[in-house]
Design goal:
Blueprint (H helix, E strand, L loop, with lengths): L15 H4 L5 H34 L6 H17 L2 H10 L5 H34 L1 H6 L1 H22 L1 H6 E6 L2 E6 L3 H39 L3 H37 L5 H24 L2 H19 L17 H7 L13
Antiparallel strand pairs: 1-2
Helix pairs in contact: 2-3, 2-4, 2-11, 2-12, 3-5, 3-7, 3-11, 5-7, 5-9, 9-10, 10-11
Length: about 350
C-alpha cells in the first residue's frame, strides 16, 4: 500500500515490524475514498467556476492585482486537485501507469502546493497595500496590475525551484509485490522536501498574520473615528472575514505541517495521522474559492451573470425570435450583459 501525502507515498518509510502499518491499511483506504470524492467534486466545481468567471468577464479587464492572484490561486488549486484520482489509484492498486506520468503527477502536486501557499501570502500583502497604503496605491494604480502579473510569474518560478526534489528524484518503487509512485529512497531528499513545505507554510502564515493584523488595526481606528452605521457594518464584516481566513489556514494546514516536523525529528509512527492531516490540507483547496473569491460582491455578481447566461439557452430552447423581438434601439439581453460597463466605484477593504 502507499500513502498519499505530499512527499512520502511509500509505506516502506515506516517499519511495519513495530509500527503496525498494515493494521491501518483498511482505515486509510476507506478514509481516502470518502474524503477524496467530496474534496475532488467540490474543489473542481468551485475553482472551475472561478476560472470560467474570469475567462468570461474579466480576461480583458482585470480590475486589480487581487484579481490576478485569485485567478492563479484557483488555477493552482484546480491542478492540485486533478492529481487526486491518480494518487487514489496508486494507493489502492499500485502504480500501473508509465513512469513519466508518475514524475509528472508528483511535480504537479508539489508545484501547485507551493504556489498556492505563496499566492495566499501575496493576496495578504495586496490587501494590506490597498487598505493601509491606500493613498500611495491610488497614485500607482496603473502600475499595480503589471506588478501583480510579475509577482504571479515569480511565485510559479519559486514553486518550480522548490519542487526540484520531486521533479528530479521521483519515480516508481517496489513495496512487496506492488509498485508505487513516490520519491526514490533518499533521506536527504525527503528531508529537504519536507523542510521546504514547513518553511513555505511558516512564511505564508507570518505574512498573513502580519498583514491582517495591520489591516485590523487600521479598520479599528477608522471605526473609532467614524460611527456611520453602514461603514461600521462593512468594517466588522471585513474583520470577521480576515479572522476566518487565518483560522481556516491554520485549521487545514497547520496539523500536516506539525506531522511533517515530527517526522523530520525521527522515530515517528503515525501513518493514519499523517494521512488524515494531509487530506485536511487538500480540503483547503475546495474552501479557498468560497473564502477568497465568491465572498466578493462584484465577483459573486459575475458568477450569477454567468449562471443566468448559461441557463438562458435552456429556457428558450426551440423558441423562435420574431422580427419585433429585436430592434435597433433594444439589443439582445446577452449583448447587454457582455457590454455592461465595469463599476468604477472605489474598492472596499474586502475582496472583490
Amino acid at each position: 500500500m502507499a500513502y498519499t501525502d505530499s512527499y512520502d507515498y511509500n509505506s516502506s518509510d515506516y517499519d511495519s515490524d513495530w509500527c503496525g502499518v498494515e493494521e491501518q491499511e483498511l482505515a486509510i483506504n476507506v478514509f481516502q475514498t470518502c474524503v477524496f470524492i467530496v474534496v475532488f467534486l467540490l474543489g473542481v466545481a468551485g475553482n472551475g467556476l472561478v476560472i470560467v468567471t474570469f475567462a468570461a468577464y474579466r480576461r480583458d479587464r482585470l480590475r486589480s492585482t487581487t484579481d490576478v492572484f485569485l485567478f492563479h490561486l484557483a488555477l493552482a488549486d484546480l491542478l492540485l486537485l486533478l492529481t487526486l484520482p491518480l494518487q487514489a489509484a496508486d494507493t489502492h492498486l499500485g502504480w500501473v501507469l508509465p513512469v513519466a506520468l508518475c514524475k509528472a503527477t508528483r511535480a504537479t502536486y508539489a508545484i501547485n502546493t507551493y504556489s498556492g501557499l505563496l499566492l495566499l501570502a501575496c493576496i495578504s500583502i495586496d490587501r494590506y497595500l490597498v487598505v493601509v497604503r491606500a493613498r500611495q496605491m491610488l497614485r500607482l494604480r496603473r502600475q499595480m496590475l503589471p506588478v501583480g502579473m510579475a509577482a504571479s510569474a515569480g511565485v510559479w518560478l519559486a514553486a518550480v525551484l522548490l519542487s526540484l526534489p520531486d521533479i528530479l528524484f521521483s519515480g516508481v518503487t517496489r513495496t512487496g509485490d506492488n509498485l508505487f509512485c513516490g520519491l526514490l529512497r533518499s533521506g536527504g531528499v525527503k528531508a529537504a522536501a519536507n523542510g521546504a513545505v514547513i518553511g513555505v507554510f511558516a512564511l505564508s502564515l507570518s505574512v498573513m498574520v502580519t498583514c491582517y493584523s495591520l489591516i485590523a488595526r487600521v479598520l479599528h481606528e477608522g471605526h473609532a473615528q467614524q460611527q456611520q452605521r453602514g461603514k461600521q457594518w462593512r468594517r466588522q464584516r471585513t474583520l470577521r472575514l480576515m479572522l476566518c481566513l487565518v483560522l481556516v489556514f491554520l485549521l487545514f494546514q497547520l496539523p500536516y505541517t506539525v506531522v511533517l516536523s515530527r517526522k523530520m525529528a525521527g522515530n515517528f509512527c503515525g501513518p493514519l495521522l499523517e494521512y488524515v492531516t494531509c487530506t485536511l490540507a487538500y480540503a483547503r483547496c475546495c474552501i479557498n474559492p468560497v473564502l477568497y473569491a465568491l465572498v466578493g460582491v462584484r465577483f459573486r455578481s459575475d458568477v450569477l451573470r454567468l449562471l443566468r447566461g448559461s441557463a438562458r439557452p435552456c429556457m428558450f430552447d426551440g423558441a423562435q425570435l420574431t422580427a419585433s423581438s429585436v430592434t435597433p434601439s433594444s439589443p439582445p439581453s446577452t449583448m447587454l450583459l457582455a457590454s455592461s460597463p465595469t463599476s468604477l466605484t472605489p474598492r472596499s477593504p474586502g475582496f472583490s
